[in-house]
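Morning run. Coffee first, then this:
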Amino acid sequence: MRRATLITTFLDYLRIEKGLSSTTIKSYALDLTRLQEWTSSNSKTLRGLNGRDIDRHIGSLSRKQLAATSIARALSTIRTFYEFLINEGEVPSNPTDDIPAPKKAQPLPHVLTTEQISQLLQAADQVSAEGLRDRALLEVLYATGLRVTEAITLRHRDLYLNSRFVTCHGKGNRERQVPISLQAINWIKRYSSTQSPREAQRNEILFLNQGALPHKRHYRSIYEASAVSASKPTTRLRRCQKFFPCRNSPAT
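And here it is:
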């Protein structure tokens, strides 16, 4: 295989043998064209590049302010290209072997404003026992920043309302104490008042769904119903802190 045809032969391989789409092949071609341009401008050859050279090329892409996703794709393209050249007997090793993939930027979580949070909380039905339960659950999540699973598995004996904290069990059954606001405590008491002492004693779990432990899907339905009532966009929830700026001061 002649040097002038290394990239062309690789792209033909992707199209004919791998069956990749023309759009994907164009992306590969763009990445390899940039590599070829850098190689030529630095008086090097594709066969002669080493890890340091690839590092310098990736750095040049970064200085051109390419997006992190584009740089990650370029490195992946180069890695695949050299794997192909190894299989074809054109190079003895892959110069990208010791180069880690760049970390992708993590998008910031969506956070509601104070007004949106207030509307979301108030959208829950505040008359029925189920509505009081839902409001109390949302208030607990807002006040503590507990994970959804931690909140819906709270037991009556985990509540230390006079001392204004709750005990929760997280991953690995690790136990921790979390402060809780007076407002959340008041809503827990309002919800608990819908149960007789005998019911509270019989049911160990605080937040029940028709007498059973609520599933995370049930909590999501609570949130989505409240969000619709408050005319707010819903978002995928794992932890309250991802959309609530946590209010966990015991004094509020």
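The chain has a mean pLDDT of 82. Good start to the day.
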